[in-house]
């Protein structure tokens, strides 16, 4: 439903997106995961047709975004990172306004609005001004408006950024319902716990995809290189590990350290050189992201 093929995008001397490729299937949530500045928003805007790629190709529902933008807009729902509705209009008035923009007939719009408001738990707030809604409720309203033309694919740019944990969980419950209905959902996030809820994820850093796949596949791929270090002097152990051959990074993890080794590194030799005991762990996506990012940084430096 969404295909991004070897896409590059520059802003002056800065290459914000560097050869990114991935696909999002119908009935799937694909998460673009990474910190601020990783290139996530640029990719989302390329998918939505708000930016043109310098190289590569983007397709939505079989249509080239650059060559058939109107066909893509009819099939794609895009939700920007910032709340883009009208604060002085009520929930109901915002829905009516966006329904008119999409060209939805009144009877169909009213039926869809009732269905979507019930699905998102917003029905009782339909007379409230959008500017008086909480952050989580604003995002739900934005999602309702995005769905008014019944898109087949969604691109949601950090929809839960700055939203309280309870509202985040509720928003993801709604996304999982849309996935079950067969929509292709592309969502960007900086929250690694949200990445665990995606069917597949792409870990972005420095404008590139460091890795893409199911969360468990990515964790399993890096598992041989992730270790835990228990120590009474965390700073000293971190310093020694940082100077040991084959160590990509050593980061605090609670009262311990997590050490990330490069491919081909000898764990026993690292332990002897750093004077620590390495215990293999089952990595989280955060561990995977840190290891893959450090590996990319080492490659770029070389």
Could you characterize the architecture of this molecule?
Helix content is about 40%, strand content about 25%. It has about 300 residues and is of the alpha/beta class. The chain has 2 domains: about 1-215, 3-Layer(aba) Sandwich (Rossmann fold); about 220-300, 2-Layer Sandwich (Alpha-Beta Plaits). The strands form 3 sheets. It has a 6-stranded mixed sheet, with helices on both faces. The protein is elongated. The relative contact order is 0.14. The model has no long low-confidence stretch (mean pLDDT about 95).
Number of strands: 14
Give the overall silhouette: elongated
pLDDT under 50 segments (min length 5)? none
Q: Per DSSP, what share of the residues sits in E-state strands of 2 or more residues?
A: 25-35%
Largest pleated sheet = 6 strands, mixed
Run of helices and strands? EEEHEEHEHHHEHEHEEHEHEEHEH
CATH topology of the largest domain: Rossmann fold
Number of helices: 11
How far the N terminus sits from the C terminus, by CA atoms, comes to 37 Å
Task: Indicate the radius of gyration in whole angstroms.
Answer: 22 Å
Based on the coordinates given, report the CATH architecture of the largest domain: 3-Layer(aba) Sandwich
CATH class of the largest domain: Alpha Beta
Q: What number is the mean pLDDT? A: 93
Order of strands side by side in the largest beta sheet? Answer: 6-7-8-3-9-10
Number of domains: 2
The share of residues in helices is 25-40%
- Please state the structural category: alpha/beta
What is the CATH homology-level superfamily of the largest domain?
A: P-loop containing nucleotide triphosphate hydrolases
């Amino acid at each position: 439903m969404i295909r991004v093929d070897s896409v590059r995008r520059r802003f002056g001397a800065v290459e914000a997106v560097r050869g990114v490729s991935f696909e999002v299937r119908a009935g799937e949530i694909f998460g673009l995961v990474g910190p601020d500045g990783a290139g996530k928003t640029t990719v989302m805007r390329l998918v939505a047709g708000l930016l043109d790629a310098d190289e590569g190709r983007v397709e939505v529902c079989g249509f080239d975004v650059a060559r058939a933008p109107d066909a893509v807009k009819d099939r794609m729902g895009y939700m920007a990172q910032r709340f883009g509705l009208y604060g002085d209009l009520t929930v109901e008035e915002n829905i009516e306004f966006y329904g008119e923009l999409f060209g939805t007939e009144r009877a169909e719009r009213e039926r869809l609005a009732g269905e979507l408001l019930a699905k998102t738990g917003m029905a009782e707030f339909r007379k409230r001004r959008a500017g008086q809604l909480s952050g989580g409720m604003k995002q739900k309203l934005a999602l309702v408006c995005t769905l008014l033309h019944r898109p087949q694919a969604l691109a949601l740019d950090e929809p839960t950024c700055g939203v309280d944990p309870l509202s985040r969980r509720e928003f993801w419950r709604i996304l999982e319902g849309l996935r079950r209905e067969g929509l292709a959902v592309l969502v960007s996030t900086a929250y690694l716990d949200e990445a665990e809820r995606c069917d597949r994820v792409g870990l972005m850093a420095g404008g590139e995809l460091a890795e893409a796949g199911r969360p468990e596949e990515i964790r399993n791929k890096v598992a041989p290189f992730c270790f835990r270090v228990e120590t009474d002097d965390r700073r000293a152990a971190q310093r020694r590990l940082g100077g040991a051959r084959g160590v990509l990074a050593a980061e605090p993890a609670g009262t311990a350290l997590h050490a990330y080794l490069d491919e081909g590194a000898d764990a026993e030799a690292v332990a002897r050189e750093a004077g620590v005991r390495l215990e293999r762990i089952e990595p989280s996506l955060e561990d995977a992201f840190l290891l893959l990012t450090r590996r990319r940084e080492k490659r770029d430096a070389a």
